[in-house]
From TrEMBL:
Transmembrane segments: none annotated. It comes from the Bacteria. Its main location: membrane. InterPro entries: AAA+_ATPase, ABC_transporter-like_ATP-bd, ABC_transporter_ATP-binding, P-loop_NTPase. This is ABC transporter ATP-binding protein. Residues 24-254 form the ABC transporter domain. The keyword Amino-acid biosynthesis does not apply. It is a peripheral membrane protein. The keyword NADP does not apply.
Length: 273
């Protein structure tokens, strides 16, 4: 298992890697918003072919870290490598390798589901016939075929999440970065998404999943990183990070902050009497 101090010693130069580079290599990422440090010198390796979970409390810096990794935000310091390609010095190559589902994704929601997928496919350089074929396949697998001619603005929250995932998949990326991909998704659709992601990872793809649901991360992921205060507290294979406890127990021990209500909220208990 690695701790935040362990990973920060990694070299920032791709030439220093032995053999193939990791899927993602984050080196000394820093991001401030005014006086608030959202990410403070974060370094982390995501092995190629792993199903990697990012967990942390609200405000830990998970979403900001993913935004820095994908180029949606520019870091104040540090950089991110995608299969050895610097996101900021070689952005076109790096971003072609990524499929991204941000939390609160803004879509072109005045297009139908079919139009949106074909448009995103064309933006990624797919020819019209291939974009149409993949769009049809994705809508079918994600149980959105009947909504293909419906404007995305009229989709439910769960449907919007699924069409966002389809947009992340359509160009055939090597790495998926998913921020809370199961939020607002019904159990049947969640099972379908899990199957797609497991199949992707088993074929050699890399999945990075940010979630607050420890049981979900424990069920899906083989590697995990615990982030708090914009830093990595622990990272490595899931079994190493959680040790002899559950991931949730290990998370609470690392992050702290669990509050003993004790005699507090007496008024709430008395109202039941």
């Amino acid at each position: 298992m690695s701790t935040g101090s362990d990973v920060s010693t990694h070299s920032s130069e791709p030439a220093a890697w032995n053999g193939a580079p990791p899927a993602l290599a984050l080196r000394g990422l820093v991001k401030r918003f005014g006086q608030t440090v959202a990410v403070g010198g974060l370094s982390l390796d995501v092995p190629t072919g792993s199903f990697f979970g990012l967990v942390g409390p609200n405000g830990a810096g998970k979403t900001t870290t993913l935004s820095l990794t994908t180029g949606l935000l520019r870091p104040d310091a540090g950089t991110a490598f995608v299969l050895g390609h610097d996101v900021w010095s070689d952005p076109v190559t790096a971003k072609r390798l990524l499929g991204v589902l941000p939390d609160g994704l803004a879509l072109f929601d005045r297009l139908t589901g079919t139009q949106l997928l074909e448009y995103v496919g064309r933006l990624h350089g797919l020819d019209p016939a291939l974009a149409r074929q993949r769009s049809t396949e994705l809508l079918d697998v994600l149980d959105l075929a009947q909504a293909g001619n419906t404007l995305v603005v009229d989709y439910s929250a769960g449907m919007t999440k699924k069409i966002g995932l389809a947009c992340a998949l359509i160009h055939g990326p090597r790495i998926l970065l998913l921020d809370e991909p199961f939020e607002s998704v019904d159990p049947v659709s969640a099972a379908t998404i899990r199957g797609i992601l497991r199949s992707f990872a088993s074929a050699g793809g890399t999945v990075v999943l940010s979630s607050h649901v420890m049981a979900l991360v424990e069920q899906l992921c083989d590697h995990v990183a615990v982030i708090a205060g914009g830093r990595v507290l622990a990272s490595g294979p899931l079994a190493d990070v959680r040790g002899d406890s559950s991931l949730e127990e290990r998370f609470v021990a690392l992050v702290g902050g669990q509050r003993d209500v004790g005699e507090g909220l007496a008024w709430l208990r008395s109202s039941l009497g």
